[in-house]
Structure formats: C-alpha cells, structure tokens
Please model this.
Amino acid sequence: MLALIQRVTSARVDVDGEAVGAIGPGLLALVGIELDDGDAQVRRLAERLLQYRVFSDAEGRMNLGLAQTGGGLLLVSQFTLAADTRKGLRPGFSTAAPPDMAEPLFSQLVATCREIHRGGVETGRFGAHMEVSLVNDGPVTFLLRA
Model:
C-alpha cells in the first residue's frame, strides 16, 4: 500500500461536476493498493499519514504531523499508483489489487483514519472518474509505503 501525499492549503474531488470531498489546509493522499496488502498495511499507512512530519513548527522546520496540526485529510483511491513502470512505455497493472480486493481495504483505511483523526477525513468516490484539484503548499510531496 502506498500513498502520494501532498501538503495542501486546499483540495477537492469532483465527480460528475459535484464536489464529493473537500478540505482546507492539510494533506491530500492518493492511495494505491497492491496485491499483497492487508490489515497490517492499512494500519501502518494510517499511522504514517497522520504522524508523518511535513508541517512546519514555530521555527519553520518540518516537525509536525497532521494529527498535531488538526488539518484535513482527503483520501483518494488511485490504482495507477500501484502500476509496474520499471520497463517499457506502458504501465502494467499486474501488481495493483483488483477492485473487489482494493475497495474494502480502502474503506478500512478511511475508517481507521476517521477513528483516530479529529481534523476531518474526506474521500473521493472509489472507482469513479474523479477530477482532483489542489493547491500544493510548498510544494511538499512525498511517496509513502506502508
């Protein structure tokens, strides 16, 4: 399980012209689920999303995690992150979990984050064609693996 996280001043997901999730300051996490992912990876990624220190402290150093700032978290399922891109000019998706396996794990990640984060957790819509807009703060972007 992996997540491309971006520190944002705002982010929003639209489906068919309608906002389905939006946050102010916080993190946008594009989440890819792989074939061997399970409960342990869900728990580990949730902890990393909420504790990874990408927000500035009083001295301007990245020493604060999302849980400390109380910012929003926008989780968006994105199977293309789990693609195998090591060779050729076309991504392969043999490493990505199929939708019937990925959707429950993504839902579990959302539930886990909502259980432990008070700053608000929003989502896109699993399997939908989504338009994601954001204002990257920094820019600050990291790839996390669970």
